[in-house]
Amino acid sequence: MANNSARFHYCLRLADNANVLAHRLCQWSGRGPTLEEDMALSNFGLDLIGQARSLYSYAAVLEGAGQSEDDLAYLRDANRYGNVLLAEYPNGDFAVTLLRHMLYSAFYYPFYVALSSSADEELAAIAAKAEREMAYHLRHSAEWVIRLGDGTEESARRMQQAVKVLWPFTGELFETDHVEEELVASGVAVDPESLREQWGSTVAGVFERAQLSVPQGAWMQSGGRRGEHSEHLGPMLAEMQFLQRSYPEAQW
Amino acid sequence: MSVKEYPLWEVFIRSKNGLSHQHAGSLHAVDATMALQGARDVYTRRAEGISLWVVPSIAITASDPVDRGEFFEPTASKVYRHPTFYDIPDEVGHM
After folding, report:
1. Which burial class, exposed, middle or buried, applies to B4 when counting CB atoms under 10 A from its CB (0-12, 13-18, 19+)?
2. Environment class of residue A152 by beta-carbon count within 10 Å: exposed (0-12), middle (13-18) or buried (19+)?
3. pLDDT surpassing 90 at residue B10
4. Do A40 and B3 lie within an 8 Å CB cutoff?
5. Considering only CA atoms, which of A219, A94, A89 is closest in space to residue A149?
6. Which one in A111, A141, A187, A241 has a CA-CA gap of 20 to 30 Å to B55?
7. Averaged confidence pLDDT in chain A
8. At residue A16, does pLDDT exceed 90?
């Protein structure tokens, strides 16, 4: 199949999304509000690490430069990462973490459903597995958004505050550039615009049950695809990449 | 509702078709929906099951350990209730 370079970059971005969000969720390990939720968030993180590994491994094959999945994950700087800014947003309180996850899953669940019929069979296979994982992520995170939004005075205030800080990062989910447009045309990639209506109705449905209001006309942040990240990604990667940077090629 | 006030639920897992649900443990959750999801996250991480039940722990009426003598000890001497006195033909196989 042609356009290996475009597919490499596409895979790498998807892998970066999963990897960065997985690391954020892993930061909750041992700190969850209850044992049950600590495990739920860790399970989410592990699902995403699994997705990231498959995608990095395939990206390495497409690149054909002899790099491994670990090289791609642990030896690239923040300005080479192509994840969306939503994924790197700091955990904040439980409301921010769960809302971030709901907004992300509401996009990536239908995304992987669509990608499972990609013309690229390897990507289609990875997507078919990720699809089920994201379906549960959406279900669980949405239930929490509803319970916190329509909960106590304090939980409702925190959830509405989380909406306010995270909403400007939702526009980037629907952006494309020449890499993706080329791949959409050849049936490899998913056109995010085709998911906008479904994402919007999923989020609106959850917000309605949660008694949260959808911000109107908010300024949308952008830049993740181009390696223009918030100040939060660098420190996060420094922590995540420390071992491989300090002890190159360390193995368990 | 503080975490301490989350109700307790008992979790039952059926590992495969044809078997009955077995008690696996318990967890805290705010309601039945979250209890089911919590059970999924805590008790089925290693492919333990294909079906889950959650039951509010307060719905379970348990026998009192004090009653153990009158409840259970009388059966110890009634070995004739065990069907072990029959000769099973070999062709029947394992029962």
Report:
1. exposed
2. exposed
3. yes
4. no
5. A94
6. A141
7. 96
8. yes
Neighbour count for residue A75 (Cβ, 10 Å): 14
- Residues of A within an 8 Å Cβ radius of B: 33-37, 39-40, 43, 136, 139-140, 143, 147, 152
For residue range A72-97, list pLDDT tens digits in order.
999 999 999 999 999 999 999 999 99
pLDDT bucket at B94, cuts 50 / 70 / 90: confident
Name the minimum distance, in Å, from the CA of B38 to any CA of chain A: 6
Q: Which of B29, B33, B45 sits opposite A36 (nearest CB)?
A: B29
Q: Give residues with Cβ within 8 angstroms of A93, minimum separation 6.
A: A158, A162
Write the DSSP string, A51-88. Answer: HHHHHHHHHHHHHTSS--HHHHHHS--GGG----HHHH
- CA separation for the pair A242, A49 (Å, rounded): 17
Chain B interface disruption, residue of A28, A31, A36, most B CBs within 10 A: A36
Record the tokens describing residue B88, joined without a space.
Answer: 């099973």
pLDDT digits (tens, 9 = 90+) for A181-201: 999 999 999 999 999 999 999
What one-character DSSP code corresponds to residue B57? G
Tell me the whole-structure pTM to 2 decimals: 0.91
Q: Which residues of A13-25 are buried (b: 16+ CB within 10 A; e: fewer)?
A: bbbbbbbbbbbbb
- When pLDDT is averaged across residues B72-95 and rounded to a whole number, the result is 83
Q: Which candidate from B1, B27, B34 shows the least CB-CB separation from A143? A: B34
User: Which amino acid is residue A213, in one-letter code?
Assistant: S
